[in-house]
Here is the input.
Amino acid sequence: MLQVKNISFSYDKIPVLKNINFSVNEGENTAIIGESGSGKSTLLKLIYGEYDLDEGQIFWKETEILGPKYNLVTGYDFMKQVTQEFDLMPFITVEENIGKHLSRFYPEEKQKRTEELIKVVELEAFAKTKVKLLSGGQKQRVALARAIARQPEILLLDEPFSHIDNFKKQSLRRNLFEYLKKHNISCVVATHDKEDVLGYADSMIVLDDSEIVAKDTPENLYSNPQKPLIASFFGEFNSINGDIVYAHQLKIVPKSDLKAVVKQCYFKGTHYLIEADLDGEIVFFENDSELSINSMIHLEITRHCR
Ligand code: ADP
Ligand code: MG
Here is the structure.
């Protein structure tokens, strides 16, 4: 398993990560979340061995991951990463980019394996296309297929679906995460998208101000967010009398002490998100239908988080 033991790191003098501790078991999916600039990418790069740590140690099983000072060639066979830059070869085809890493296979086997990988990332129609002709999202998919080509034991993914459009995103996520589970490949996914986490991550790490501020299952963090930062990752929420109340936990009732005035309605597909004024504070709640602006309503908290 992956063990990150009390690591600290700074690029210059300013600490980017402080006292980071966590572990990832074999086959487990761990999500790292945090605002932009919170150090997610840096943490993945440290796990990959791209920089030397100021303090602490990182292990995959018995192997210590060493930075450039102690390890001339960055990277290990058991670990692959997909960075935000992709690093593909532009002048050869999708198929060739993926197959490049499969030279140890017999030609027939190699072809079969390449086809399997292309299917995971749904690029069948582009197998023979040169990578330079692809869109950003398509390139990201090639990078994903290439990273899993040689069955790493652990995969590091930095915002892996950020360039992929909504039409493809859902099925691609399912394909990739199912593939990793099926092959018992551990993964660490840096993301700011809850859709990458819910339903897929076994555990979730929240980075804020250089430190881990929460570490638990997505279920537990969702139902007991403890900090507005965590709640905001999952969706629209309100602070009512010190409690965190998600928009869907606030409902219209015929009568209650919480009187509010409707200010805005936003169509969200499955529901409307209503913005209302509750004693001078803006609150958000979900409703099945649109409401008239400036109408008076009564709200009830159906459930809240501690
Ligand atoms: P995230 O991926 O969560 O957006 P990053 O790990 O990219 O965060 O960045 C964390 C902090 O480190 C930011 O303040 C960023 O400006 C800084 N940083 C990132 N890369 C470098 C670098 N190569 N040199 C100096 N500072 C960097
Ligand atoms: Mg980043």
Remarks:
- The longest strand covers residues 15-24.
- Helices lie at 40-48, 94-99, 107-120, 136-148, 166-182, 218-223, 228-234.
- Residues 166-182 form the longest helix (17 residues).
- The two ends are 33 Å apart (CA to CA).
